[in-house]
């Protein structure tokens, strides 16, 4: 039985270091290839960049495992690439809120967040936020010179890990709102689930004190959320076989009272939603109850 912990101790650090590439390369290529980030939760790079920067500044005081530190540095590079590609290919409507709410225009004018945080229309505020966060933490470290027992070290460590633990939540919400997993790559989900198993094995098989309990607790929470995302993906099915419920704003007046028509085709063989761009009317049956007046 001692062989298993030994193998985990050898291969888990390698997997953790490479996980930024194995988890997100396919998503980056998919967005670049399709020229749209619709369906992909833009909060994912925001969460990972914020958490990774905090984890980097957590290391001087906590001195946690070096593999996790290297992973944090690589994650910053990969997530910056993902953020750039997602912003360059951002549709007129964001994938997190794909349908028009009653009384609002088709192009959403407000996010409901303070200062429209991480919903900015221009790219520059995203990069300014990241630079501000990094230099603020650098200034605080230079001023305070914290050690492992300081309240500041424990605070930024707990904050960074807590933020990272919420990683699956925006995608769970985006999928729930869209009733589809379209735009979210199954390769990312598979790597998240496999990574959870590797992390849990590595965290609990490591010698005491090597991995702080904050990593373990937040890792368990994230693993549970990833499992829920897997169930959600299984329920919604393959996004290539289902079509998103589409809402279109009409360029002109159809009538004095008709401002928007929601058009949907539902599959003949059960629940789900089809992509009208890849399916034909012959593959679906028209459900007139979906068409609504707003």
Question: What key phrases describe this protein's structure?
Answer:
mainly alpha, single chain, 294 residues, 8 helices
Average of pLDDT: 76
Largest sheet: 2 strands, antiparallel
Percent of residues in helical segments? Answer: 55-70%
Shape: globular
Instruction: Give the low-confidence spans.
Output: 94-109, 241-294
Query: How many helices?
Result: 8
Written as H for each helix and E for each strand, in order along the chain, the element string is HHHHHHHHEEEE
Task: Assess the beta-strand content as a share of residues.
Answer: under 5%
Task: Specify the structural class.
Answer: mainly alpha
Oligomeric description of these chains: single chain
Number of β-strand runs? 4
Radius of gyration: 22 Å
Side-by-side strand order of the widest sheet: 1-2
Q: In whole angstroms, how far apart are the ends?
A: 64 Å
